[in-house]
Write a structure and sequence with these properties.
The structure holds 2 protein chains of 2 kinds. Chain A contains 6 helices and no strands. By secondary structure, chain A is mostly helical. The chains are: A mainly alpha, B mainly alpha.
C-alpha cells in the first residue's frame, strides 16, 4: 500500500513536471502554435493504450491455454486501463484537430482505427458483464479478445486503402521528423511518466480484480454452507 | 477426411432444418427489403447518387440482417439441449463450426441473390452485365461475415441480452468486410465496371485469417 502511494506520488510529480516542461521549456511549434502542446498528452496516451491492448491480447491467449484465473484478471485490467487511455486519445484528438484542420473529426485511417478499437474493447467489457459464470466469462471474453485483436491490422489496412482512393479532406499534421531537442526531452519524460502511470493503474486494477474474485469465492462458500 | 465427411453430414442437417420451415430465410429477406425501402426515404437518391451510396446501403442492410440471422445457429442447439450430443458425435469440434458457417454463408448468399435484382430495379442500377463478378464479391463477403458471425453466435448464445450482444460484438469487427465488399461492389456498379482484385484479395485474406483463428480456437467456444 505504502509502496503504491510512493510510486503514485513520484509519478504525479513527474507528470506535473513534464506539464511544466511542455509549457515553459519546449518551444512553441512553428505552424500549429500553442495548440500543439496537447500532443504531450495525446501521444503518450496513444502509446500506453497500445501497450495495454497488447498486454490484454497476451493475457487472453495465456488464459485460454492455461485457465489460470490470474490471466483473466490481467486481461480485464489491461482492457479497462487501455480503454481509458484510448478515451483520452479520442477526446484530445478533436480538441487539437479543430483549430489545426478546421474540423473536429475526419474519417482518416488512424482516427477511424482508434474509434473502431474503442468500440471493440467496449464490446469486450460489455460481454464480460453479460456473462454470469466466472469461468465462462473468462473463457469467452478471452476468445472474443483474441478475435478482436486479430482484427486490428485488417481494420487498419482496409481503412488506409479505402481512404487513399479518395482525395484527402485535409493535410495530415502531426509533429514532423525533425524535433527540437527540448521538445524531444519533454516527450521522452512524458512518455516515461505515462508508461509508469499505465503500470500503476494496471497494478491497482489487477489487485482489485483479484480481491473481487476472492470475495466471490467466499460468498459461494457461504451459500454452500 | 473425417472432418470433411462429418461437416458434410452436419451441413445436411443444418440445411434440412432450415428448408423444412424456411423461417429464417423468409424473415431475413423481408427484413432487408424493408431496410432498403426505408433507406430510399431518407436519401431520395438520383441515379448517380444511388450508384455511389447504393452498394454501401446494401451491404449495411446485409450486415444488420446477418447479425440477427446468425443468432439461432447455436441458440437452437442450446435450447434443445443438443449441443453436447453434437460435440460427442464428431471427432473434431471444428466440423460443427465448419458446417454451421457454410450453412450460414449459403443462407446469406441466397438472400443476397434474391435481393440483388430487387435492389437493382428499385435503385436503377445495372447488374446484368457484371452479375458473375458480383456473385464472387458477395460470396467472399458473405463468408467473411459468416466466419466471425458463427463464432460469436456461440458466445452470445451464453450471454444475457444475447439479441443485442451479437451485433455489438460482430459489427465493429466486420469493418474490414464492410469496406472491402462495398468498395468492390461499387467498382462493379460504376459507369465503367471494374473488378477490383485488390479488394477481392483483401476479403479472401480476411476470410483466411478468421477461418484459421476459428480452427485454432473453435473447440474452446463449445466448452460448457
Amino acid at each position: 500500500m505504502i509502496k503504491t502511494v510512493f510510486v503514485a506520488v513520484i509519478l504525479f510529480t513527474m507528470i506535473a513536471f513534464t506539464a511544466y516542461l511542455a509549457f515553459h521549456y519546449a518551444p512553441i511549434e512553428k505552424t500549429m502554435g500553442p495548440i500543439q502542446k496537447i500532443f504531450y498528452l495525446h501521444l503518450p496516451s496513444a502509446f500506453s493504450s497500445f501497450i495495454a491492448l497488447g498486454i490484454c491480447f497476451y493475457a487472453n491467449l495465456r488464459y485460454v491455454f492455461s485457465r489460470e484465473a490470474k490471466w483473466d484478471w490481467l486481461a480485464v485490467s489491461a482492457a479497462e486501463v487501455g480503454l481509458a487511455f484510448i478515451s483520452v486519445v479520442l477526446v484530445t484528438g478533436p480538441i487539437w484537430a479543430h483549430p489545426v484542420w478546421g474540423i473536429w473529426w475526419t474519417w482518416d485511417a488512424r482516427l477511424t482505427l482508434t474509434f473502431v478499437l474503442w468500440l471493440l474493447y467496449i464490446a469486450y467489457l460489455l460481454l464480460r458483464s453479460m456473462l454470469e459464470e466466472p469461468d465462462k466469462r473468462a473463457l469467452f471474453s478471452a476468445l472474443f479478445g483474441i478475435f478482436a485483436f486479430l482484427d486490428v491490422p485488417l481494420v487498419y489496412f482496409s481503412i488506409r486503402w479505402w481512404r487513399t482512393q479518395h482525395p484527402q479532406p485535409v493535410i495530415l499534421g502531426g509533429p514532423g521528423s525533425g524535433l527540437d531537442p527540448r521538445m524531444r526531452i519533454s516527450y521522452l519524460l512524458v512518455w516515461a511518466a505515462f508508461t509508469g502511470l499505465l503500470i500503476l493503474l494496471l497494478n491497482g486494477r489487477y489487485k482489485l480484480e483479484a480481491m473481487r474474485a476472492s470475495v466471490e469465492e467466499l460468498r459461494r462458500e457461504m451459500e454452500v454452507r | 477426411m473425417a472432418l470433411l465427411s462429418n461437416s458434410a453430414v452436419l451441413l445436411g442437417k443444418e440445411l434440412r432444418t432450415e428448408f423444412r420451415s424456411r423461417e429464417l430465410l423468409t424473415t431475413t429477406v423481408v427484413f432487408i427489403l424493408t431496410i432498403v425501402v426505408l433507406f430510399s426515404f431518407t436519401f431520395d437518391p438520383s441515379a448517380s447518387e444511388s450508384r455511389r451510396f447504393g452498394p454501401g446501403l446494401l451491404w449495411l442492410a446485409f450486415l444488420f440482417a446477418a447479425s440477427l440471422m446468425l443468432q439461432p445457429g447455436f441458440l437452437r442447439e442450446q435450447n434443445n439441449d443438443t449441443l453436447s450430443a453434437l460435440r460427442l458425435s464428431v471427432s473434431d469440434p471444428f466440423a460443427i463450426f465448419l458446417a454451421k458457417l457454410i450453412a450460414n454463408a449459403i443462407f446469406l448468399l441466397l438472400t443476397e441473390m434474391l435481393l440483388l435484382p430487387i435492389f437493382a430495379i428499385l435503385y436503377n442500377v445495372h447488374i446484368l452485365a457484371v452479375f458473375p463478378q458480383l456473385v464472387l464479391v458477395f460470396f467472399l463477403g458473405s463468408v467473411g461475415v459468416a466466419i466471425p458471425g458463427t463464432a460469436f453466435s456461440a458466445i452470445s448464445a451464453q450471454a444475457r441480452m444475447r439479441e443485442l450482444m451479437l451485433p455489438v460484438l460482430l459489427l465493429p469487427l466486420l469493418t474490414p468486410v464492410l469496406i472491402g465488399s462495398t468498395e468492390a461492389t461499387a467498382a462493379l456498379l460504376a459507369e465503367k465496371p471494374e473488378l477490383r482484385l485488390d479488394w477481392l484479395g483483401f476479403l479472401a485474406g480476411f476470410d483466411v485469417v478468421f477461418l484459421t483463428a476459428l480452427w485454432l480456437f473453435g473447440e474452446y467456444l463449445l466448452e460448457e
